[in-house]
Amino acid sequence: MVNTDLLIGLDDTDSKKGMCTTYLAALLVGLLKECAEIADYPLLVRLNPTIEYKTRGNAATAIKIKTSHADRVKSVVIGAVAQNAELNEENTNPGIVFAEDSDAEALSEFTERAIKHTVPLEDARKIIADMELGYHYFKNGRGLIGALAAVGADRWLVDNDYTYELITYRTMERWNTSRYIDEKSVWIADSETYPLTWDTVDVHNKKIVFAPHSPCPVLYGIRGDDIKAIESAYEMVESEPVLMRQVFRTNQGTDSHLMHATIPKVIDGESYVLDGIISKPPRVIEGGHLIFKISDPADGPSIECAAFEPTKNFRNIVRSLIVGDMVAVYGSVKDGTLNVEKLEVMELADNVVRCNPACPSCGKRMKSAGMNQGYRCRKCGTCSESPETEVLKRDLAYGLYEVPPVARRHISMPLIRYRSSDKIVHPSR
Ligand code: ATP
């Protein structure tokens, strides 16, 4: 019998009411042991975060196995998806792709596209047909896009940056109920393993951020760069019973969605790093969101940027910006507005303010002498017609800032992971 290396890609099995594609992958890792050997960590790939069909974090998964029972494997996988996917939900359209592990190299480019751009379903179908890959789908089969990208991630992650997440799952009778996790144990687990694990807690906002609030089967996830540190954090966390746990290799925390571009090249539904000069200062709108504009340093077109209320203390950085500051903004563009995830302060403009002139005799600030009558020193009686200007000290340091863990997207790189030595970073914790 031939022992084949197979990659199984899965996507679009969940809805806002329940399930999670990572749960199905973890379940399959257990179920497939009967007919296959699990060859590596399963993959969890976060695709373009702006996709309108996504349930939450636009995740797709892939499992790598060795088997001499490919037909049995396929029927176990299709059966598990049929049984567990939220097929009654309109927006759940599962897709499964079966490929040989040698196919991953050719699919890596498709993975890159699905992380950064919007891919039509027909393109995924054509690649599947051209490469003669095995597949199965339910309903409109949109999940084939993510499933195909997850297979290509087996190669894509090798050529790019990756991290790990250990996800724990709840026993079925607890789904849809509030989670029991001992908070104190989580703070200890974090302080013992940070920065090899990250985004478990938000210190500034005093919040535990590693557990979802949705009705899905996930209890919590521990993210990091080092599997040993992740495992040791897991050992420290006390919680309700864990049904199963699974470590995934992933592009979470890598900023793989971002593309360097200039403002005129920006299109909706993609994520960028854009250099610009503040051309409209930050203003608060209803709900506590901050809106400002940056203009292209070369030829002037501008783009609106937003630091939304959930970004909490990050807005203090944005609030300090003034017209003329040179920045780089990082984030996704939707409806013409860039949702800021990171901000680099590159040059600070002089903060010039008008003030009443100083009295040449006593040095004290003169007072207004009345409408259109200039200024007069109350003590000395000296007069002046025009105000003076003063350059105020800026309370903002150069470097890269980020939204706090409580507002961090799965795919965004925490600055504590930032490896480039040419930038000053201000990690938010
Ligand atoms: P969760 O993260 O909770 O598992 P989700 O947020 O991953 O859920 P899905 O239910 O998987 O959301 O829905 C995303 C859908 O969008 C899938 O059908 C997937 O194939 C498709 N999709 C993903 N990336 C792209 C892309 N770049 N272009 C077009 N479609 C995409």
Please specify the SSE layout and strand pairing.
Layout: E1 4-11, H1 21-31, E2 37-38, E3 43-46, E4 59-67, H2 70-84, E5 95-100, H3 104-116, H4 121-130, E6 134-137, H5 143-159, E7 163-170, H6 183-193, E8 197-198, E9 201-202, E10 207-208, E11 218-224, H7 227-236, E12 242-250, E13 258-261, E14 271-285, E15 289-295, E16 302-307, H8 314-319, E17 326-334, E18 337-347, E19 351-355, E20 367-368, E21 375-376, E22 383-384, E23 388-392, E24 399-402, E25 425-426
Parallel strand pairs: 3-12, 13-14, 16-18, 24-25
Antiparallel strand pairs: 1-4, 1-5, 2-4, 3-4, 5-6, 7-11, 7-12, 8-11, 9-10, 14-15, 14-17, 15-16, 17-18, 18-24, 19-23, 20-21, 21-22
Helix pairs in contact: 1-2, 3-5, 6-7
Please explain how this structure is put together.
The chain has 429 residues and is α+β, with helices and mostly antiparallel strands. The chain has 4 domains: 4-159, Alpha-Beta Plaits (2-Layer Sandwich); 163-250, Glycinamide Ribonucleotide Synthetase, Chain A, domain 4 (Alpha-Beta Complex), CATH 3.90.600.20; 258-348 and 394-426, OB fold (Dihydrolipoamide Acetyltransferase, E2P) (Beta Barrel); 351-392. The chain has 8 helices and 25 strands. The protein has helices at residues 21-31, 70-84, 104-116, 121-130, 143-159, 183-193, 227-236, 314-319; strands spanning 4-11, 37-38, 43-46, 59-67, 95-100, 134-137, 163-170, 197-198, 201-202, 207-208, 218-224, 242-250, 258-261, 271-285, 289-295, 302-307, 326-334, 337-347, 351-355, 367-368, 375-376, 383-384, 388-392, 399-402, 425-426. Strands 1, 2, 3, 4, 5, 6, 7, 8, 11 and 12 form a 10-stranded mixed β-sheet that branches. A 5-stranded mixed barrel has the order 14-15-16-18-17. The protein has a 3-stranded antiparallel β-sheet with strand order 20-21-22, with no helix packed on it. Strand 15 and strand 16 (302-307) form a beta hairpin. The longest helix has 17 residues, at 143-159. The two termini are 53 Å apart. The mean pLDDT is 96. The structure holds adenosine-5'-triphosphate. Adenosine-5'-triphosphate (ATP) binds at residues 11-12, 14, 20-21, 47-48, 51, 53-59, 93, 114, 118-119, 142-143, 145-146. The site of adenosine-5'-triphosphate (ATP) has 23 residues, from helix 5.
